[in-house]
């Protein structure tokens, strides 16, 4: 029987069952269980079906959230999946890793009225996992095959979304990626306790079965040039993401045991996938038995502290220069980390890395901070109080964010223009770069951001590429007549 909607006054908000902190700290499996069918329907039925759905406005993809919540509440799951997947190329991934507390759930109307938000992300995950299990997700079969082709640089979420959209229109699509597997940071940056790797692999296999070609271990600029790519394809998309780690600017940063976050997370994810990683086996990228200090307050920092716990660190401390309310990472992730034993030192800014006579890190000296006047972003600026303290450390992980790599140099393409931060310049109406027929999307354009934004950009770029190729095809037909 279909559930009635607007049940938020009778049905309390509930998440899928979460494994205990002790249990989940011993492995890299996802920490939340699955909704039962009855629980999913009940939670979906809490939606107030707003006339102006703020949740949809808070979603970069403008997902039709109230529609698929209603369908889920009525047990019309295949229809719910079709509505959900119409605007999102990987809803099972967004349902797991989107910071819903900062997006759709954060501005849910019933959350604002004090009844607790609808658990949108968990219902989204349930719908799409059910679609996979029931076999509703089948390889793409375009209505007609086109001879034109697209080359996509980067197999992360932006590149994969664009590849799928173009393939649906019948284009021949090849994705090039420097890694040996598809997924980008979905595979190598985000730990398994947030996103198990078979979920990503399943999506890649689906795209391969749909006729999309993947060329892994291929670096543009080294293994083939951007000029070669433009010669081979009618259009090209740059969706490389940003991988240049922002560095810590303080004395002692070169000490042994001070590591970039991505190196650390990539090693951990490779081990989780069954790969052999020499630096991990040698203990360089392994936190087991160590006192770990992570510097930063974003989602990458949360991934690092929670990974260190699972590797058996002796202690894990996170230093962040602002307070908890002003941190950029998900509050849900902070709560999970605290449950698992991470210690947070709020309003603490690293001043120096202290090393031993042998050059190994032994502590981080930090300044106590207070929040002063707002800066240009509107956030209160941290100001030193004059007090310092030391945190013992055997491993220090820098999780300060990422900048774009120097693509004009890497691609040996000086005509590719970038802005003062190194991000690729595009025409924002079309996402076309300074090179005709070459487009860019995702973090390499907007800077380090969320997976859901990369998906949106990939979809937008694919539509612009389609229009350009269709126009070129029409012009060619006129010229031939």
UniProtKB/TrEMBL annotation:
Coiled coil: none
Residue spans crossing the bilayer: none
Dihydroprymidine dehydrogenase domain residues: 24-135
EC numbers for this chain: 1.4.1.13
InterPro entries, sorted: DPD_II, FAD/NAD-bd_sf, FAD/NAD-binding_dom, GltD-like, Helical_ferredxn
Top-level taxonomic group: Bacteria
Domain spans labelled FAD/NAD(P)-binding: 152-458
Keywords attached to this entry: 4Fe-4S, Iron, Iron-sulfur, Metal-binding, Oxidoreductase
Entry GO MF terms: 4 iron, 4 sulfur cluster binding; glutamate synthase (NADPH) activity; metal ion binding
Catalytic class of the enzyme: oxidoreductase
PANTHER family, A to Z: GLUTAMATE SYNTHASE [NADPH] SMALL CHAIN, GLUTAMATE SYNTHASE [NADPH] SMALL CHAIN-RELATED
Record's protein name: Glutamate synthase, small subunit
Gene designation: gltD
């Amino acid at each position: 029987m279909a559930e009635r909607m607007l049940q938020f006054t009778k049905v309390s908000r509930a998440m899928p069952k979460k494994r205990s902190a002790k249990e989940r700290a011993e492995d890299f499996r996802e920490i939340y269980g699955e909704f039962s069918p009855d629980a999913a329907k009940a939670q979906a039925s809490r939606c107030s079906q707003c006339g102006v759905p703020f949740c949809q406005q808070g979603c970069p993809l403008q997902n039709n959230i109230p529609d698929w919540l209603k369908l889920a509440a009525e047990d019309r799951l295949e229809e719910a999946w079709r509505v959900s997947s119409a605007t999102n190329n990987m809803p099972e991934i967004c349902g797991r890793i989107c910071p819903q507390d900062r997006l759709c759930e954060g501005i849910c109307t019933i959350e604002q009225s004090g009844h607790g938000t609808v658990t949108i992300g968990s219902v989204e995950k349930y719908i799409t996992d059910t679609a996979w299990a029931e076999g509703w997700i089948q390889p793409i079969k375009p209505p007609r095959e086109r001879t034109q082709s697209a080359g996509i640089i980067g197999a992360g979420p932006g590149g994969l979304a664009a590849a799928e959209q173009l393939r649906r229109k019948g284009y021949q699509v090849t994705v090039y990626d420097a890694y040996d597997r598809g997924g980008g940071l979905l595979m190598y940056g985000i730990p398994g306790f947030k996103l198990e790797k078979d979920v990503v692999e399943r999506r890649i296999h689906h795209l391969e079965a749909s006729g999309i070609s993947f060329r892994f271990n291929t670096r543009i600029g080294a293994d083939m040039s951007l000029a070669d790519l433009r010669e081979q394809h009618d259009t090209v998309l740059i969706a490389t993401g940003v991988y240049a780690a922002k560095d810590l600017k303080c004395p002692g940063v070169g000490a042994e045991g001070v590591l970039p976050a991505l190196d650390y997370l990539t090693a951990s994810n490779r081990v989780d996938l069954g790969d052999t990683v020499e630096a991990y086996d040698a203990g360089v990228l392994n936190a087991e038995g160590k006192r770990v200090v992570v510097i930063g307050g974003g989602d990458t920092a949360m991934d690092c502290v929670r990974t260190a716990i699972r590797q058996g660190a002796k202690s894990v401390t996170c230093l962040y220069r602002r307070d908890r309310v002003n941190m950029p990472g998900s509050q849900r992730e902070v709560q999970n980390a605290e449950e698992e034993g991470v210690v947070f030192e709020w309003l603490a800014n690293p001043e120096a890395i202290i090393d031993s006579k042998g050059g190994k890190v032994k502590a981080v000296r930090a300044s106590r901070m207070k929040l002063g006047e707002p800066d240009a972003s509107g956030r209160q600026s941290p100001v030193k109080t004059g007090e310092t303290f030391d945190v013992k450390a055997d491993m220090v992980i820098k999780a300060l964010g990422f900048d774009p790599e120097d693509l004009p140099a890497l691609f040996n393409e000086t005509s590719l223009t970038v802005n003062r931060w190194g991000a690729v310049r595009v025409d924002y109406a079309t996402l076309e770069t300074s090179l005709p027929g070459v487009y860019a999307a995702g973090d390499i354009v907007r800077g380090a951001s969320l997976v859901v934004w990369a998906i949106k950009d990939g979809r937008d770029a694919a539509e612009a590429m389609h229009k350009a190729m269709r126009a070129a095809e029409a012009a060619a037909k006129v010229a031939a007549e």
